[in-house]
Each structure stands twice: as structure tokens, then as C-alpha cells.
TrEMBL record:
PROSITE patterns assigned: HTH_ARAC_FAMILY_1, HTH_ARAC_FAMILY_2
UniProt cross-references to InterPro entries, sorted A to Z: AraC-bd, Homeodomain-like_sf, HTH-like, HTH_AraC, HTH_AraC-typ_CS, RmlC-like_jellyroll, Tscrpt_reg_AraC-type_HTH
Pfam families: AraC_binding (PF02311), HTH_18 (PF12833)
Keywords: DNA-binding, Transcription, Transcription regulation
Name by which UniProt lists this protein: AraC-like protein
A GO term for molecular function: sequence-specific DNA binding
Gene3D superfamilies linked: Homeodomain-like, Jelly Rolls
UniProt key word Transcription regulation: yes
HTH araC/xylS-type domain residues: 182-281
Keyword DNA-binding: yes
Length: 284
């Protein structure tokens, strides 16, 4: 059986503890938001619903919710009689191999993890200890909180590894590849009009260019470059339909191309006609 362990060093797992709070949510959270730091919710009582990245997920006592940076979320109260009670834990400054900084793996892409009895007891114990320590003023308070947090993270990683090893006797190449691809698509959609380097994107994620290309194609069926080209061509088409007064050079520049001739070749390949003829047909 192939076994891959998370490689962790002092620099990889030297977390900065930010906060812990214990909250019974009786009203729906108004703000649909994301964080730059990691946040974990541990449900200790009741039931509830999370709205995460456009989808609703039911939660219950014994569930653990991983909210990596950039994950938009909102806690909903759908049953006032069975409100969820949760510990919220915030932290940053971890880095696991093959993962973006400050990101925890999501087994099979699942952000909500039902904890087994043994795992649940250990997690509840650590949450309770952190909660009590957080409200003390004893010497070494921060370092005690940090030590509990490290135990918490390692407990979670070990449990995830055991779960993945049970599936076909191996660990997936990257348990969080969906998150990486999602971030790449978001970047393309926000920066398609700029010069984009796949090498720089991979470097920013602390991954290899080969690796991000491989997982992008496995998740989308297309290469990152082809995805970007198709996105830019669709944006160019929209620009020409909405603003026919724009020159081909201007349209090319607005979707990230300095060379209008190169842009025209890509446009013709994508739509079967040159941009000048496409616009002429649209104006008839």
C-alpha cells in the first residue's frame, strides 16, 4: 500500500493563533464573506445550514467545517428550535506540501467533515481547553493556545490521512486540487485583460507549472492556456457587440493581447471568421 505523509517542519506548522469563540447562533448571519486567514467551525450541539460558495450545506453536532482563505460563507438559521452551537477557531501561517499557504486539505473536496466518535471526543476536548485558556490571564497564555492549536491541526491531518488511505489503499495526489483549480479560474476571470503567466501563477501557489496544468486539465478537461484563450475570445465578442465603435486593436488590448494580428488569428480559429468580418455581420 502506498503511503504518503504530510511533510511538516517548524516553518510549515508554526501557526499564528488568532481567536476562538463559542457561539450559539440564533439568527442568520447577515454578511456573506470570506477571510484571508483559516477558520474552522466545530459544531457541538444542534443543527444548522451553511451557505458556502453559492450552495447550501446542512450541518449537525459532530460536524467540522473547514473554511480556507477565499471561501465565501454565511451561517443560516433554518430552525430556531434547534440552533447550532459552534466553536470558531481562526489561525494562519501554516503550509502543507502541494498546498497553497494557509490552506488545509479537503478530503474529496468536502469542506464539511462528519467526525467519528474518537475524533469528536478529542476535538471537543481541545476546543474546550482552548476556550478556557483564551479567557485566562495566566503566564504563557498565547503559547498554551498555540500548543492546543497545533494538536488540533495534527489531529485533523492524521484523521484525513486515515480516511484517504481507506479509499483504494492510497492517498490521492492532491486532496485539495479542486480549490487550486477554483482559484485559478477566479484569477483568469478577474485578470483576463492583463498579461498572465502560468509560471507566475504556479509560483504564487508554491506549486510547479506542470502540476497546476495537470490538475487543471483533470478537473476541467482543458488546459489553462486554452481556457484563458476561450475566455478572452468570449469577452472580445461581447465587447464588439456592445461597443462596435472600438477598433480591433483596442478590443485586442482590452482582452490581454498587444498584437492585434495574433488576436485576429485566435478569434478566427475560435469563431470561424475574422473579427472584422464578425463585426460587419453583426452590424448588418
Amino acid at each position: 500500500m502506498y503511503r504518503q505523509e504530510y511533510d511538516l517542519t517548524y516553518d510549515d506548522l508554526n501557526p499564528t493563533f488568532l481567536f476562538i469563540c463559542n457561539l450559539k447562533r440564533t439568527e442568520t448571519e447577515e454578511n456573506y464573506h470570506s477571510h484571508e486567514h483559516l477558520e474552522i467551525s466545530v459544531v457541538t450541539k444542534g443543527y444548522g445550514t451553511y451557505y458556502i460558495d453559492g450552495k447550501e450545506y446542512p450541518i449537525k453536532a459532530g460536524d467540522l467545517i473547514i473554511l480556507n482563505p477565499g471561501t465565501y460563507h454565511r451561517s443560516l438559521v433554518t430552525c430556531p428550535q434547534c440552533c447550532a452551537t459552534e466553536y470558531y477557531i481562526g489561525f494562519s501561517d501554516i503550509h502543507i506540501r502541494h498546498m497553497p499557504p494557509n490552506t488545509l486539505p479537503l478530503p474529496n473536496g468536502n469542506m464539511i467533515i462528519p467526525m467519528k466518535d474518537g475524533m469528536r471526543q478529542d476535538v471537543y476536548r481541545l476546543c474546550s481547553a482552548m476556550g478556557k485558556e483564551f479567557h485566562t490571564c495566566r503566564p504563557g497564555r498565547y503559547f498554551m493556545l498555540k500548543s492546543y492549536l497545533i494538536q488540533f491541526i495534527l489531529l485533523l491531518l492524521r484523521d484525513q490521512q486515515e480516511v484517504m488511505e481507506e479509499q483504494n489503499g492510497c492517498i490521492f495526489e492532491s486532496p485539495n486540487k479542486k480549490y487550486v483549480v477554483k482559484q485559478m479560474i477566479r484569477y483568469f476571470n478577474e485578470h483576463y485583460h492583463e498579461k498572465i503567466s502560468l509560471d507566475q501563477i504556479a509560483k504564487n501557489m508554491y506549486l510547479s507549472t506542470f502540476y497546476v496544468s495537470k490538475i487543471f486539465k483533470s478537473e476541467t478537461g482543458d488546459t489553462p492556456i486554452n481556457y484563458l484563450i476561450e475566455l478572452r475570445m468570449e469577452k472580445a465578442r461581447e465587447l464588439m457587440e456592445e461597443s462596435p465603435e472600438l477598433s480591433i486593436q483596442n478590443v485586442a488590448a482590452m482582452v490581454g493581447y498587444d498584437d492585434a494580428y495574433h488576436f485576429s488569428k485566435l478569434f478566427k480559429k475560435h469563431f470561424g471568421t475574422a473579427p472584422s468580418k464578425y463585426r460587419a455581420i453583426g452590424n448588418q
